[in-house]
Design brief:
homodimer; 282 residues; Arc Repressor Mutant, subunit A; five-stranded parallel β-sheet; globular; DNA-binding
Chain lengths: 282, 282
DNA sequence: GCAGTATTGAATAATTTATTCCGCCTTGGC
DNA sequence: GCCAAGGCGGAATAAATTATTCAATACTGC
């Protein structure tokens, strides 16, 4: 399941041959079962060695490894589909269908997060945030929503989390950071000019940078000390945007919960619940 | 699935070595993924050639064929099991455990949405938003994140979606609404004083109100024309907050996708993708 | 006890997969 | 425009995995 999403998400940054391979696999995932690397190469019109290199580039040990992963994806998809439609062989209302589709896509996207993100990266990121008191978060547009979310979480943990929607002010805020601070940059594409400015600025000052982008090589993740990724790659543009955002949020939430676990925060919890009570009083 | 049953069914008529192989496979089906025929032979204490012969005797072309079949069985079983009950008491890294727990909770929370929300309410809400051009969204604190999210979505659909984090300004914005406008109020508790003010104001002006709150009777949902609910109720306070927020967002996203479907929006899609390109240019 | 048959594993062949190496092309600097 | 650096793809080759052969042994029915 995840495997195919991963491939789809990396389509953009593939060479021609790699892309042909990817397309073939996506279109004929179910056929792969009976293909050797040589056969696949022939089917696509390339060399066997290229097939193997393709597999390795995607992070698999070799061809059999990819094959197994694709097979798993095929099986999982068909099993889930079966158990879903099994519930109601009848036609469902459009809303139900839509909701189930959304939940299914979401489920697969989120499941992929642990596969494309090294556990070490997650641990490093949470270490990083645990040790610092001051975090500047930056993200614009859709990623701005994620940024707000994360700001809220970090504030709850007692961290000074800075964020501003104005890029100029964000840069001003950056000038208040020191080496013990952390810069968290959130961007779908990883190419946003304002964020790159912030990254350059932080690099000069030796401020640690965590990036959170789509899963593909991009300027931002290259500039970051710790790069986190969200899966992307659904065909439906609008749905894809939703899913990427939710995957980003999900990663933030994972970091948040990790921090909760590691930070003895009983007093903080009381504090913030008191605060909430205050806020919500009628 | 069939594969393991087949093996089990033939247990009786097997020779000693074959039986050892069969037992091992049945007990360690999940391990087979990473075993070569030689490794399996070693693990069982036999020769590699016997392994191959065993496979062929069972009707498979050879070892890889059996391996694939066993793998399928394992996947199918685990997929079905996971969707049924979520118990896997294996030793995992803390991160993996945390993530799986989170995803499981999320999954169940989201699945509940269709149960606590009338389909009619969802349809009404989307009708309501479809027909209007001007929406004032209000939500503070954590719900503010959801509000921002929804604002972004509605703007993408070409709706004038207003939102301000300052309650006073929000009220000012409300004074620009007319009977064709919609007020969308988002609150966890449904008791926030500022939102209630907005609701009273809108009632007087006969502006339609959609509320999005936790699933319990509350002042806000009573004041609303259409009340939508997010499940709440996890024991862990912090996790619960996350889940409620995500459920709220999920509801918003459902509305958004419904609107996408119903609104012929090809030109809008182009527009907004052009916009995004502009924004993300380096 | 003996012929016939089945089972096993060592050796080997065949196949599949992984790596190396080389030529080609692109890219970026001068 | 030229050259160096680096990535890409494929042919050749190495390594590994898998399949077959064959001989030894054990077992079965007579």
């Amino acid at each position: 399941m995840v495997c195919l999403l991963k491939i789809r998400g990396m389509l953009e940054q593939m060479s021609i041959i790699e892309r042909k391979l990817a397309d073939f696999i996506l279109d004929n995932a179910h056929l792969l079962r009976d293909y050797s690397s040589q056969q696949l190469a022939d089917a696509v019109g390339t060399s066997q060695s290229s097939v193997v290199k393709f597999c390795q580039k995607l992070g698999y040990k070799g061809y059999p490894d990819l094959k197994l992963a694709v097979n798993e994806a095929v099986i999982t998809a068909s099993t889930l589909q079966r158990s879903d439609s099994h519930e109601q062989g009848q036609q469902q209302s459009d809303i139900k269908t839509l909701v189930e589709q959304l939940q299914f896509s979401l489920h697969s996207h989120l499941r992929g997060i642990l596969e494309i993100n090294d556990e070490k990266a997650l641990r490093d990121a949470s270490d990083c945030l645990l040790q610092t008191d001051k975090v500047l978060i930056a993200g614009f547009g859709q990623s701005g929503i994620v940024a707000h979310d994360m700001q809220f979480r970090l504030l709850q943990l007692g961290k000074l989390a800075l964020l501003h929607t104005d890029p100029a002010i964000a840069l001003q805020l950056a000038s208040t950071l020191d080496q013990h601070s952390v810069l968290l940059l959130i961007s779908e594409s990883g190419q946003n000019a304002d964020l790159l400015k912030l990254a350059r600025f932080a690099r000069q000052r030796q401020i640690r940078i965590i990036s959170l982008t789509s899963f593909k090589t991009n300027a931002l993740s290259l500039a970051a000390d710790i790069a986190l990724y969200a899966l992307s790659g659904d065909e439906n543009v609008r749905l894809n945007a939703l899913l990427v955002q939710l995957a980003q949020q999900h990663l933030c939430h994972i970091l948040y919960l990790l921090l909760c676990q590691r930070q003895n925060n009983d007093h903080l919890l009381e504090e913030s619940s008191k605060l909430l009570d205050l806020l919500e009083q009628q």
